[in-house]
Amino acid sequence: MRIPYVPNPPPFSAPEETQILQRVQARRAPRPLQPLDLALFHSPPLADGWNSFLGAVRTKTSLADDLRELAISRVAVCNRAWYEWQHHAPLAAQAGVSKDALDVIKIEGPLQGLERPEVLSEKQWAVLVYTDEMTRNVQVRDETFGQLKQVFSDKEVVEITGTVAAYNCVSRFLVALDGKLYTNFIFYYPLLSNYSKVGERNGTGPDDVMTH
């Protein structure tokens, strides 16, 4: 990380900052504060807004878990945000995204013009292509948007778009500051059949991160 993390727990004394800390801790529970939190806590108001927004995106939309985590994982690949990939690819697997489907998500080139792989449903593919174009180009072709609208409601389209936008924000923050993970945690993800040891810098790719 290009800036130092604040101490854990942050030594806040002002009541409003202590309340912000408590809100972030409540959302993270039962996990500890994450390295991202300890970077954001240099600016408690920013950490508070971030916590509220990302909490809504992660836990309060109507999107199925596989669609949300698939989109976030694709953002990570497009932006080469391997910290983000390490957190969310296992969650995609836990939500039912197969290893073969994860291999599709890891394709580093644009998805425009490719046929839908059999390992992805129509909804999953629509989200993946939309995420890819929105992340790479910002502008989305009418054809791509039309495919999304065929299988999702207006509410779901807004939630998918908000999720992709939110995690583009996260990945850009992490990559710019070269976010890394703690060295003293090991998370085990049975569905990926490997141990994912944290403590590396951003890494060089999804396989590099997943095999550390």
TrEMBL record:
Carboxymuconolactone decarboxylase-like domain residues: 44-107
Gene Ontology terms for molecular function: peroxiredoxin activity
Domain of life: Eukaryota
UniProt-listed Gene3D superfamilies: AhpD-like
Membrane-spanning residues: none
Listed name of the protein: Carboxymuconolactone decarboxylase-like domain-containing protein
InterPro entries, sorted: AhpD-like, CMD-like
